[in-house]
Design goal:
The chain is an alpha/beta fold and about 500 residues long. About 45% of the residues lie in helices and about 10% in strands. It has 2 domains: about 325 residues, 3-Layer(aba) Sandwich (UDP-N-acetylmuramoyl-L-alanine:D-glutamate ligase); about 170 residues, Protein-Tyrosine Phosphatase, Chain A. Helix 1 packs across helix 5 and helix 4 packs across helix 12. Bound molecules: adenosine-5'-triphosphate and magnesium ion (MG) (2 copies). Belongs to the folylpolyglutamate synthase family.
Amino acid sequence: MASQGGTTYNDAIDALNSLQTPFAIIEARRKAGIRPDAASIAEMRVYLRRIGLAPSDLDRLNIIHVAGTKGKGSTCAFAASILQQYQKAHGVPRKIGLFTSPHLIAVRERIRINGAPIAEDLFAKYFFEVWDLLGKAEEAEKAQGEDPVSEGERGGVPMATRPIYARYLTLMSYHVYLKEGVDVAVYETGIGGEYDATNIVERPVAAGISTLGIDHVFALGDTVDKIAWHKAGIMKLGSAAFTIEQVPEAAKVLQKRANEKKVELKVLGVDSRLKGVDVRPDALFQKKNASLGVALAEAALQKLDPSFKQNLDQLPKEFVDGLEQVIWRGRCEVKTEGPLVWHVDGAHTVDSLKMATKWFAGECASRQGPKALIFNQQGRTEAVDFLDGMVAALKSQGQGSFDHVVFCTNVTYAVTGYKRDFVNHQYDPAAIEKLTAQHQFAEKWSALDPNAKVVVLPTIEDAINHVRDLAKDVDGQETVQALITGSLHLVGGALGILEKADAL
Ligand SMILES: Nc1ncnc2c1ncn2[C@@H]1O[C@H](COP(=O)(O)OP(=O)(O)OP(=O)(O)O)[C@@H](O)[C@H]1O
Ligand SMILES: [Mg+2]
Ligand SMILES: [Mg+2]
């Protein structure tokens, strides 16, 4: 597909959506057991070359690289926010990049500079520059009689002209950050580490591995040690490496791989200098993320600013401000709408859903009134087993159970359907149409808690309106406490509705 003369942000998002792997192909690969492997990295290097860059060019970005099952994005946000505050006070670093995934409200949120998502026009400009460079380079290689297939060939499948969605954005981010003169960039891995598109960086400033657990079982393996092997792949000889305390199986693998790579891996406890710092939410997992973020920022500043000296007794003011003023949308957010209090969290794994439910329970402790849940997770059959943990987590906090439970799809609006930034070809369209997953969730929840009033609704907008209606019936001091969780797409769509157009 050519750029078709389009130049706007919407054109770019449409072209980007055309790079999604369709559901049918994902299924076929799954059945054939095709997983990301070393060839994925080889291909990324070819694409990088085709946009005129060598891996050594990425050294200029002074990359902080973060992998982990949970807390990657939060850790990255802490590190970037600290660097931001440091810059305000010292003028160093000049420009801070932050590359994260997935997006919550708009695709361009994944590529930030100095805290802000890149502007729509800039996104479109760089998007099509990369698009055209890739097209022309492939043509030129073919014209010279080079076989562009052979280098990145995987199992006889020729390399596509352009990489798939997430990898395209990774590639584009390098182009953007180098053109814009970014001198430190914080990168969240997409899936895993070893074979993730972000792992073409050879000399990061530092690598950080956040909490490990089970997720992406098909790509990474079904045990925490297999998963740890992948995440350990971002540690590089000559770069600082940090992690936090992990379950023993994971810790062992990380250490073993660090030894093999001759990397000194520092295992951080909760940083004692965080005492008195208002890290939100006030939960252990977030203090671990913050501790990792601090260590990564320190490692970067040690390289970028010769006058920076680590203070082991106390965090500098810029660090405290960075931690306290960090903005990381869709995680543990509270929004009050009259007699209705929304709690929004994008948790979508077993452990993080328990965590999110406990956080919600804590928030509910001081309020009276019914509790409502809006939940979805699309395209993961195992998600039905996540529900037990949530029921148990609420009970264990002495908060009883949800009175109302709503399962909906990630389709944003009842009338207009998906916002462009959320179009997703990777899910089974028939299952969305029939609300298959949602009916399974409903059946399971009714078995777990026969007293709950469970409903299945087609869209996020319908679900929100349903809960808003509940709030019309509460009296006096009561409020409806609502939790929206299970998927970042759900949460992003919900924030878009709750805050209208200005959610970004
Ligand atoms: N260290 C942690 N351990 C367990 N749960 C966590 C941790 N950090 C964050 N969470 C939970 O996971 C949610 C997502 O956090 P975050 O965006 O930082 O993770 P991520 O690793 O980037 O996840 P994703 O897979 O969505 O990219 C948070 O809202 C919180 O509920
Ligand atoms: Mg994930
Ligand atoms: Mg993330």
